[in-house]
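Worked example 3 (structure in, sequence out).
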């Protein structure tokens, strides 16, 4: 059983990792090409749209996440066709109401970007329902393809608009919203073609209530990084200039590229932890995730090089980039391990309470740092402090996985070296010194976990 679980988690990670590599390439093109050829104002408008739609999932009120918990550890073949149709119908009815409310808000405030984001609520959230079911039932093959549909179509559309030299932000935002409808249609076709599930409309109030009750705390947990990280962007957008928002949004977008490596861990670990109870095994996975994260954040150095030779008008974002990349080391552990433990043990309410504390801490930290400095760098440091605070809360809550002194020493020392070399040294020499330092720290203090991580990566390449 243990060997089967280990095999499934490796297979799932590889499938999602491969899909996320494609996602990474596409997202990187969008991240670095659009700022180069769009004006600061147009780029800031597109990032405002992404900020709005990042909250779209919250409007599902946890229904999709309740389904995720309900079918966790099951097989897709065991999910009745009636349940899929009920999920679709309930989502359609609820999200139609949410869409009308948001359209009205956008109309009354005169915010056309908000209105376009509202139009994408229905397709986005129904697609999330399907993807959550695929993920929970271990259908990582179709799930890995599903997560790439959106970025692929967005890339094609934006490249076409760039070739046509469209400068206005409205066409870019409209095509991004239209992609949500295309993805929804593709997933409906997949359900019919692969599983012979016919579309039927069947509403069920009890199903809606039960899944919202169980999934609401988890929904807030799944959006934890959005809720926490978006607080800093709201501070910048409301209190600072358009240029500051563009710089900070670029840095956030660059650091978010690391999700290509975080998502496979976060996605597959839930299904794994539903069947794995050995704390020593889980603790070992957590330590190896930390080591992997310390190597992954070195991607900030190539980004710095890009700023130096290609995107010079965004070079002022360099400091923010390294600070936000540092937060990803904590988020990989929090999202990949701790969040999934809460889900597997059905501790959504505890996770929700913890999240509220983190959000309050984040708002307070951002406010204090803004009043003290008023710069985007100060806001970034507040975000890093929030990530550290959240990591400490998780460590205290799940005492069985409390980090040892050697683990903390490697983590703290590596991040201090990362920030120093990134902010004070040329990118190439800084990169070499950082990588060598992390290797030395791991060999000295965490040799067994380091070697096991290398062995796992080697075996997965074969």
């Amino acid at each position: 059983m243990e060997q089967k679980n280990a095999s499934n988690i490796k297979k799932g990670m590889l499938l999602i990792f491969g899909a996320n590599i494609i996602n990474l390439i596409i997202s990187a093109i969008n991240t670095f090409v659009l700022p180069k050829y769009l004006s600061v104002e147009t780029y800031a408008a597109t990032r405002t749209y992404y900020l709005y739609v990042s909250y779209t999932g919250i409007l599902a009120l946890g229904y999709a996440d309740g389904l995720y918990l309900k079918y966790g550890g099951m097989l897709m073949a065991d999910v009745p066709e009636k349940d899929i149709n009920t999920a679709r119908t309930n989502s359609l009815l609820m999200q139609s109401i949410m869409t009308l409310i948001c359209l009205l808000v956008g109309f009354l405030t005169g915010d056309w970007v908000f209105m376009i984001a509202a139009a994408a609520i229905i397709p986005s959230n129904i697609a999330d329902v399907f993807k959550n079911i695929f993920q929970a039932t271990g259908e990582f093959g179709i799930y890995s393809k599903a997560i790439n549909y959106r970025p692929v179509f967005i890339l094609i559309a934006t490249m076409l608009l760039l070739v046509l030299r469209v400068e206005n932000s409205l066409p870019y935002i409209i095509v991004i919203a239209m992609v949500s409808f295309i993805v929804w249609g593709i997933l409906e076709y997949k359900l019919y073609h692969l599983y012979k599930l016919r579309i039927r409309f069947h509403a069920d109030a009890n199903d809606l209530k039960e899944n919202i009750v169980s999934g609401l705390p988890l929904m807030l947990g799944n959006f934890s990084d959005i809720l926490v990280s978006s607080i800093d962007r709201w501070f910048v957008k409301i209190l600072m200039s358009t240029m500051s928002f563009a710089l900070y949004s670029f840095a956030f977008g660059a650091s978010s590229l690391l999700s290509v490596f975080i998502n496979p861990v976060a996605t597959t670990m839930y299904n794994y932890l539903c069947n794995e109870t050995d704390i020593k095994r889980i603790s070992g996975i957590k330590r190896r995730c930390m080591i992997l994260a310390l190597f992954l954040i070195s991607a900030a150095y190539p980004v710095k090089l890009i700023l130096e030779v290609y995107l010079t008008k965004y070079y002022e974002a360099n400091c923010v980039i390294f600070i936000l990349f540092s937060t990803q080391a904590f988020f990989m552990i929090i999202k990949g391990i701790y969040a999934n433990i809460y889900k597997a043990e059905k501790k959504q309410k505890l996770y929700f309470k913890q999240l509220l504390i983190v959000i309050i801490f984040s708002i307070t930290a951002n406010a204090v740092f803004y009043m003290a400095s008023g710069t985007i760098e100060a806001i970034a440091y507040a975000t890093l402090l929030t990530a550290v605070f959240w990591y400490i809360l998780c460590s205290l809550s799940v005492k069985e996985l409390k980090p040892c002194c050697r683990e903390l020493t490697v983590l703290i020392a590596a991040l201090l070296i990362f920030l120093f070399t990134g902010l004070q040294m040329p990118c190439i020499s800084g990169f070499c010194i950082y990588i060598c330092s992390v290797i030395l720290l791991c060999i000295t203090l965490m040799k067994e976990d380091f070697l096991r991580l290398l062995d796992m990566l080697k075996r997965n390449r074969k």
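Notes: Residues 1-6 have pLDDT under 50 and may be disordered. The chain has 20 helices and no strands.
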